[in-house]
Amino acid sequence: MSPKDAFALAVKEVIRRLGRSVLTLLAVALAACLLTALVLISRTAETEVLRQLAKGGPLASIKVAAAAPDPSQLANDNARPGSPRDLGPQAARAIGRLPDVASVVPVITSRMIFVPSAGAPGAGRPEPSYFFDTAVGADLRDPSLLPISVLAGRLPAPGSLTEVAVTPGYLERLRLDPAEPEKVLGAELEMGPPRVFDELEEQTFRALWQRTEIVGVVAQEAAPGGIVTSIEHTRRAQRWSAASDGDTGELELSNSPYTGLVVVADGLDRIGKVRRQITDIGYSTSAPENLIASVQRYLNVVEIVLTAIGSIALVIACLGIANALLAAVRERRREIGVLKAIGARDRDILFVFLIEASLLGALGGVLGSLGGWAAASAVGIVVNSYLTAQGLLGLHLGPSWGVLLLGVLGSTLLASVAGAVPALKAARLPAREAVSES
Question: Can you give the pLDDT at residue 71?
């Protein structure tokens, strides 16, 4: 018997006993649906929890800052600009060449004066009508490399000098509800870095004013500061304030071109190694690796438990396949005997029953995996509605092709295993006995 004939015979038997086949198929599909939905939900929960810990940025991100110079090493390099202690383009290139470093994004901060527009929404403007805060500038061409989450609106356009994003602290300053961040979108905000002058034994300052529009509300961990803008904007502000000729202590000016760097490692397991390499160069680092590792361990336990529950349901469904095929062997004894009488070998009979079991498992796995993805998506919609109502970031549940494929292959494999015993019983049935008993 050729494989084609065996497959055709198996399909014929599935169609002939359609009622029993449909019930068996539904059992496998429901079990595969449960398993797929639980795995998708648990994996999405793990990803979203870790993303929240990283404030929307890459999980393997490391913040780099200029370390305080060691006096002994300072004497060796004479504190010249561009030395390893200077956090600038040279340092960024050196860190970018390290093994296991995926990307390096510079961050520049500048202390500025901010004046909300007279028509700013809210119960009232802050008293006084201006305030000092730190503007955080970064290369915004690829925001996914930065620990920034957009809560409302969008990020400023790369290189823009007229667009900014604010943090929830800005809303609190204007006495607005942080749960309604969209209220400040489109509002004007005047901002300017101060330059200090010593005039007639008195200190005065002059600001380089720039009128900007608030285009987004974000949560960010790139650097301390309540305003996010382009790196070109903060670099311009830094140069203006650096030309001060008076006491600039309150401006927190730095001699380093960059305030910090956001370094992304090639994986969570390589954060420690990259941090040690950066520290050896001469810079201080920080990363939530210990917290993420602890959370990961607990989430892995949850995933194991949910996967086990779905797997048990799938095993029960496959036992139903075994029971259905055992009943089919009893009903088809005459047919098996006839097939053997006309030349079918034991392995041919075995092959037919295994194909029948695998076919039921594969079809049930496909239907169940698609149903599981649909169920998980429905749960995601409900959870998103709740998170949005609470003023939190929503989750994104996309189709995980690996999980869907695993559901189909797992169902097929378990069904084949479940059909092995009935198939062996059918294959070992003597032709003479089968024909005589029928």
Answer: 47
